[in-house]
Amino acid sequence: MTTDSRETSSTTTAPSDAATQASPLHDSQNDSQTQDAYFAGGCFWGLERYYQGVDGVTATQVGYAQSKIPDPSYEQVCSGATDAAESVRVTFDPARVTLRTLALLLLDVINPYSVNQQGNDTGRQYRSGMFYTSPEQKTVYDTVLRQLAARDARTPAVALEKLRNFYNAEEYHQDYLDKNPGGYCHIPLDKIFNVGRRQRYIERVWELSPEEYAVTQEAATERPFDNAYDQTFEPGIYVDIVSGKPLFLSTDKYDSGCGWPAFSKPINDSALTNHRDTTLPGRPRVEVRTADSQIHLGHVFDDGPQDCGGLRYCMNSASLRFVPREQMESEGYGEYLPLLDK
């Protein structure tokens, strides 16, 4: 039995005679500048809208992949009789976005370990998958899945299969969230709206160590007194480990005794964003993230040095990269050198 949390919003708009256009294998070779990729990741409404925000994606089509019967209807797919997966055909310009980036963005937005479920929707049609149409695509997908497994020491539940068929879904499913802005979506809206920004940094995020990933992406906390920069006080600048954007100066760093790097202020307030954090029962805190890459840095408290403004930016070393003064010019941070002499 499958559960579809979208039924109340989809069946009311579905025309009774909606026709599905069969397209077992779509070929974009008539446009030599584009290629097609086929992804499954839960409800195709949200996944399509997500990929539409990626720079370099030129078109999308939602449909049913790997069906056992030709030209299935939505009702047949939901019944489980077709074994089809709700999928999105992503047409893209490889000069603007790579297939690897598209695959990484899929793994970034879904739960790659969930079996036959994404969000509130359960059933075989909601399984996740990467369906390749060439040996080259298979190699790309296999590589990212192996890297994910190595990083998390777990086996992803993302199918890697040759695309057997893809049938366009009914017209009312196409661009559904554009037609119905308040419609159901299992993908958080902030991820949809920020996918273009995420696209710029996804490759760097993938290069992070397990600890760096846990801290920056999952808001974990590194061990106090046992991290890279707690006792680093040489002149230099601290930058976002993902984007490289300048965040803190060594002249604003002090030993707070908390076991993590502490700063009295950022270089520029606009580089950071503050968020209410209630993860510790009875101890509300203010979480600090970067405005650009939106990684988790740590928290800010009001128990800092009064003569420096009274704030303590308690940051994780794993979210930062320290650039010594003598390397700042060569690494592109020369304009900040005068600030170290104030």
UniProtKB/TrEMBL annotation:
GO terms for MF: L-methionine:thioredoxin-disulfide S-oxidoreductase activity; peptide-methionine (R)-S-oxide reductase activity; peptide-methionine (S)-S-oxide reductase activity
Active site: residue positions: 43
Record GO cellular component, one term: cytoplasm
UniProt KW Oxidoreductase keyword: yes
Record keywords, A-Z: Multifunctional enzyme, Oxidoreductase
PROSITE patterns in alphabetical order: MSRB
One example of a Gene Ontology biological process annotation: cellular response to oxidative stress
Gene3D superfamilies, per database record: Peptide methionine sulfoxide reductase, Peptide methionine sulphoxide reductase MsrA
Region (Disordered): 1-32
Catalytic activity from the UniProt record: L-methionyl-[protein] + [thioredoxin]-disulfide + H2O = L-methionyl-(R)-S-oxide-[protein] + [thioredoxin]-dithiol; L-methionyl-[protein] + [thioredoxin]-disulfide + H2O = L-methionyl-(S)-S-oxide-[protein] + [thioredoxin]-dithiol; [thioredoxin]-disulfide + L-methionine + H2O = L-methionine (S)-S-oxide + [thioredoxin]-dithiol
EC numbers on record: 1.8.4.11
Low complexity: bias regions: 8-23
Name of the top EC class for this enzyme: oxidoreductase
Residues of the MsrB domain: 201-325
InterPro entries: Met_Sox_Rdtase_MsrA_dom, Met_Sox_Rdtase_MsrA_sf, Met_Sox_Rdtase_MsrB_dom, MsrA_MetSO_reductase, Mss4-like_sf
Family annotation (NCBIfam families): msrA, peptide-methionine (R)-S-oxide reductase MsrB
Record function comment: Has an important function as a repair enzyme for proteins that have been inactivated by oxidation. Catalyzes the reversible oxidation-reduction of methionine sulfoxide in proteins to methionine.
HAMAP family in the cross-refs: MsrA
Stated family: Belongs to the MsrA Met sulfoxide reductase family.
The name this protein goes by in its record: Peptide methionine sulfoxide reductase MsrA
Organism in which the protein naturally occurs: Bifidobacterium subtile
This protein's encoding gene: msrA
